[in-house]
Amino acid sequence: MEGGAYLVIAVSFGIATGVIGRGKGSSFFIWFAVGAVLPLLGLIAVIAYRSEHAEPERRCPTCNKVVKLYVQVCPRCGTDLYLPDPSEVRQPR
Ligand SMILES: [Zn+2]
After folding, report:
1. pTM of the predicted model, to two decimals?
2. How far is the CA of 25 from the centre of ligand 1 (A)?
3. Segments in the chain below pLDDT 50
4. How far is ligand 1, taken at its centre, from the CA of residue 33, in Å?
């Protein structure tokens, strides 16, 4: 029963990948599909995946919009954003 064993492995990896993906603030079902279609590779991908929520943030000095640290030009007011004072960078949970 090769097919049956593969199905068990695919579903197991799918669930594990989905749970990790959901824990990182992403969709369980998207990562379940990735893990089921690509067992192991999907699991590695979700472990390496960086959630958007984990990116450090800073505040635009001109309009106070909160943007990601890697954003170089404020999307609201167009101010050039240089590397801020480290005390102004905050790590979202
Ligand atoms: Zn701004």
Report:
1. 0.53
2. 26
3. none
4. 38
